[in-house]
Each structure stands twice: as structure tokens, then as C-alpha cells.
Amino acid sequence: MRRLAEYLGCGNIYKSRESFSLMVGKLDDLTSKVLPFCINYPVLGVKGQDFEDFSTVVDMIKAKKHLTEEGLEEIKKIKQGMNKGRK
Predict the structure, then answer these.
(1) Above pLDDT 70, what percent of the chain?
(2) Residue 68 DSSP class
(3) Structural contact between residues 59 and 80, judged by C-beta atoms closer than 8 angstroms
(4) Is a pLDDT exceeding 80 seen at residue 86?
(5) How far apart are CA 61 and CA 81, in angstroms?
(6) How confident is the model at residue 43 (pLDDT cuts 50, 70, 90)?
(7) Which residues are within 8 A (CB) of 11 and not within 5 positions of it... i.e. 6 or more apart?
(8) What is the distance between the alpha carbons of residues 87 and 56, in angstroms, rounded to a whole number?
(9) Checking phi first, is residue 83 left (phi over 0); if not, alpha (psi -120 to 50) or beta?
(10) Are strands 12-16 and 19-23 parallel, antiparallel or unpaired?
(11) 11: exposed, middle or buried (C-beta count within 10 Å: 0-12, 13-18, 19+)?
(12) Which residue has the higher pLDDT, 87 or 9?
């Protein structure tokens, strides 16, 4: 995970119990580094669907839709369907 952060040139690594997470806080880093990497090296299966939802939310944030009540509700709805909420 540390090498991935080094390769991307962004993010911080956090450990919780038995897992590690790469946290990227800058929207510009997400759009210019993380998303292109994940598009070039796609994740398959359900996690790939979660990535598509995540990309949609990033686009909404870039367009500042998260600043409206409707946009925020749409993001919450997308979030509920991700990970274990996917049917």
C-alpha cells in the first residue's frame, strides 16, 4: 500500500486491525491520479461496480452538485448501494 501511495504521489496510509487503507483527501489528486490509475488497471466484480459509483460521486463533487440538497441526497443514495448495500 505504501508503494501505491508513492507511485501515485498522493495519499496517506492508515492501518486498522488487519487491513490498510489509502486515504486521498485532495479532489485534484483523485481526479488526476487515482481515477486514471483505476481506469487503466480496472477492478473486477462488485468492487468494480463500487468504483463506478465512486467515480460518479467524484464527478458530482467536481460539478459542485454536493452543495445542493438534491445532490447531497443523490450521493447518499449512491453510498447506500455501495459495498455491502449492493443488491
Answers:
(1) 99
(2) S
(3) no
(4) no
(5) 18
(6) confident
(7) 5, 22, 23, 24, 25, 29, 34
(8) 18
(9) left
(10) antiparallel
(11) buried
(12) 9
- Residue 5's identity, in one-letter code, is A
Whole-number Å distance between alpha carbons of 36 and 7: 13
Domain boundaries, the chain: 42-87
| Owner of C-alpha cell 438534491 | 70
Rounded to 5 degrees, what angle do the CA atoms 2, 86, 74 make?
90
Reported as a single tens digit per residue, the pLDDT across 16-35 is 988 999 999 999 999 999 99
